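The protein record minuted underneath.
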Amino acid sequence: MVHIRWQALIAVLGLSIVTGMIYAPHAPEKPGYVVEGVRQTETIDEGRLRQPVGPVRIAGFVLIVAGLVGVLLAQQLELASYVMTSSILAFALGAILAWTGRPARTA
């Protein structure tokens, strides 16, 4: 009975190797996807894309994460309602800061 388990293990390993060889991903000649029928109507300002995120937005994202963690912990640990309320307020304040924060100034 022990030999059957080893034989099954070897068979599964062999199947895994063979299917990996058959269905191996290949790199395309040109990276990217071809999308038919889509036209880009405006140009992308790459300078704006490279602007660093400002400290106000980073603080907003941190408050969002802290609010979510607080809500999840308050539900799981059955903490007082003020913990849930403060977590929801932290989430809302973080969302406002992340949405309205200005990008950092570049020199």
Summary: The radius of gyration is 26 Å. The CA atoms of residues 60 and 96 lie 7 Å apart. The mean pLDDT is 76.
